[in-house]
Design goal:
- The complex is a heterodimer.
- Chain A is an all-alpha fold.
- Chain A has one domain (21-328): Ferritin, core subunit, four-helix bundle (Ferritin).
- In chain A, 65% of the residues lie in helices and 2% in strands.
- In chain A, helix 4 runs antiparallel to helix 7 (161-191) and helix 6 packs antiparallel against helix 10 (238-256).
- The longest helix of chain A is centred in the middle third of the chain and has 31 residues, at 161-191.
- By secondary structure, chain B is of the alpha+beta class.
- Chain B has a domain at 6-60: Phenylacetic acid degradation B (Ubiquitin-like (UB roll)).
- Chain B has a 3-stranded antiparallel β-sheet.
- In chain B, a hairpin with a 7-residue loop joins strand 1 and strand 2.
- Classes of the chains: A mainly alpha, B alpha+beta.
- Chain A binds chain B through residues 37, 39-41, 86, 89-90, 93, 96-97, 100, 103, 108-110, 165-166, 169, 173, 313, 316-317, 319-320, 323-324, and chain B through 1-4, 6, 22-26, 28-29, 32, 40, 43-44, 60, 62-63.
- The complex binds fe (ii) ion (2 copies).
């Protein structure tokens, strides 16, 4: 989801007998739901996979600010502008909580950001879609943050202590994001013109499928899931979370008076879940490869932000050095 | 972030409890660490006081010291109030 397709480097799961004493003690600790902390011994694969997963997650939070930033100067009222700004600032915070958690594993923040800018690591596919109308800001808060919540709530119980604590902070802040988004759409649907209502439906039509893709490939195509689940850095399968999201979202969609662009979406009494249509995975893999509508623009914007801020960072460093020299004198 | 040292952040909530570790920030100096911590960890009234401490100044116990450090306290039940049984007539004590 915010971390899609994280490679664990493990072809298959080892059972307890095959493990070294250290590995076994580690796995038993995880099985007993005792958190792994930075100074504890951990297998190399666990460390590397977590760095990959947390950095992807952090990059997603940071890149995720860009589609919303697009509407900051064009928010319809001052109130909406302040709300959107607060939401975006939260996302910057989420990125920072996560980079901090990642650093406890020995990774370097600058290096990981360089990897992002060089296209060596990914961020969530969803942020490569454009925000064409104000309704998209509502749809993102409601659906994209809604999907993020479904993914992040179980991660509060992830086995790695600093990651789990970061997720607890993040989850506390997310529900405001989703509610402000839904309220934007409700306002448009309940008090808006026909044109504004059509704008909401158009926005949902464009985002519906990409949002479902956020949960990652179907379980059959998730070769790394078993290891990640054993390590408890992933707690539910992609398909399970996707289904949970759809089940809770459809009633909200109906309340809005909108529809999903999926003729197969209907309640299945026997399953106790909504059935839904086939996802076009070729689009997902294409976007991940860098061919989504906004991939290039997103990375360019990130790089430019880092480059344009270089003089500020240098000035801060020079100032700190001067202060230190003055104190020493 | 090799240039900017890491600071650990502690926040005291308004309920008068002790400062509690909430996370960390990078900053060029202490003043900036404090400002970054404010921006990152107290956007919603989470606290009334912040401490920032250079991470390298913290001395921490190691995981393999867990037994020598903490096991000795496990067999000292007499340090807990519940160890001392008193007749009901004494009432709440
Ligand atoms: Fe977030
Ligand atoms: Fe969010």
């Amino acid at each position: 989801m915010y971390a899609q397709l994280v490679d664990t480097g493990a072809k298959r799961l080892k059972d307890l007998e095959e493990m070294s004493a250290e590995e076994r003690a580690f796995q038993e600790r995880i099985d007993a739901e005792i958190k792994i902390e930075p100074k504890n011994w951990m297998p190399d694969g666990y460390r590397k996979t977590l760095i990959r997963q947390i950095s992807q997650h952090a990059h997603s939070e940071v890149v995720g600010m860009l589609p919303e930033g697009n509407w900051l100067t064009r928010a319809p009222t001052l109130k909406r502008k302040l709300q959107l700004m607060a939401k975006i600032q939260d996302e910057a915070g989420h990125g920072l909580y996560l980079y901090s958690a990642m650093e406890t594993l020995g990774a370097d923040r600058d290096e990981e950001i360089d990897k992002l800018h060089d296209g060596k690591v990914k961020y969530s596919s969803i942020f490569n879609y454009p925000t064409l109308s104000w309704a998209d800001i509502g749809t993102i808060g409601w659906l994209v943050d809604g999907a993020a919540i479904v993914n992040q709530v179980p991660l509060q119980r992830t086995s790695y202590g600093p990651y789990s604590r970061a997720m607890i902070r993040v989850c506390k802040e997310e529900s405001f994001h989703q509610r402000q988004g839904y309220q934007i759409l409700l306002d448009l649907m309940q008090g808006g013109t026909d044109e504004q209502k059509a704008m909401v439906q158009d926005s949902i039509n464009r985002f519906w499928w990409p949002v479902l893709m956020m949960f990652g490939p179907s379980d059959a195509d998730s070769p790394n899931s078993a290891q990640s689940m054993a390590w408890k850095i992933k707690r539910h399968s992609n398909d399970e979370l996707r289904q949970r999201f759809i089940d809770q979202t459809v009633p909200q969609l109906e309340f809005l008076g909108c529809t999903a662009p999926d003729p197969d979406l209907k309640w299945n009494e026997a399953r106790g879940h909504y059935d839904f249509g086939e996802i076009d995975w070729s689009e997902f893999f294409d976007v991940l490869k860098g061919n989504g509508p906004c991939n290039r623009e997103r990375i360019e914007t990130r790089k430019q932000a880092i480059d344009d801020g270089a003089w500020v960072r240098e000035a801060a460093k020079a100032y700190a050095a001067k202060q230190r020299a003055r104190q020493a004198a | 972030m090799a240039d900017w040292p890491l600071y650990e952040v502690f926040v005291r909530s308004k309920h008068g409890l002790s400062h509690k570790h909430v996370g960390s920030v990078h900053a060029a100096d202490r003043r900036m660490a404090l400002e970054n911590a404010r921006e990152l960890y107290t956007r919603r009234n989470e606290g009334v006081s912040i401490w920032v401490v250079p991470a390298k100044e913290i001395t921490a116990s190691a995981p393999d010291e867990k037994e020598p450090l903490f096991d000795p306290s496990q067999d000292k039940v007499y340090r807990h109030a519940s160890f001392y049984e008193l007749p009901d007539e004494v009432g709440h004590m």
